């Protein structure tokens, strides 16, 4: 099983980036997958999640209205469209899943449970937003 993020980079405040998370090495098709981020000196936090079962999503309050998650099931790829980026969005962004939970529970993804529990993580993509 492999998850690989791409699309990170350096952007000015107010700009946009689209992250991709490409999955390979598995045949599961009923799971939720989340995006997380970790800023320097801070704990890793949940950003967004999408369910492959019915495409329902969850988005953290700090990015709601600016970030949009989507999925291309034919490519096993999840996207995170990030608009109106702010310096505080600077972080390493990760995708993660367990291939078991089909739903995006806000309680699970918004706290520390998912970060400690999910077994499959990508290596991360650096996003830097300059002011």
Can you tell me about this structure?
There is one protein chain. With 131 residues, the protein is mainly beta. 8% of the residues lie in helices and 47% in strands. The protein is built from two helices and eleven strands, in the order βββββββββααββ. It has helices spanning 106-110, 113-117, and strands at residues 2-6, 9-12, 17-24, 32-38, 45-51, 57-59, 67-72, 77-82, 91-97, 120-121, 125-130. Strands 2, 4, 5, 6, 9, 10 and 11 form a seven-stranded mixed beta sheet that branches. It has a four-stranded antiparallel beta sheet with strand order 1-3-8-7, with no helix packed on it. Strand 4 and strand 5 form a beta hairpin. The N and C termini lie far apart (37 Å). The model has no long low-confidence stretch (mean pLDDT 95).
Inertia-based shape: globular
Radius of gyration, in Å, reads 14 Å
Low-pLDDT stretches: none
Calculate the mean pLDDT score and round it: 95
Could you tell me the strand content as a percent range?
A: over 45%
- Binned, the helix content reads under 10%
Number of helices: 2
Q: Count the strands? A: 11
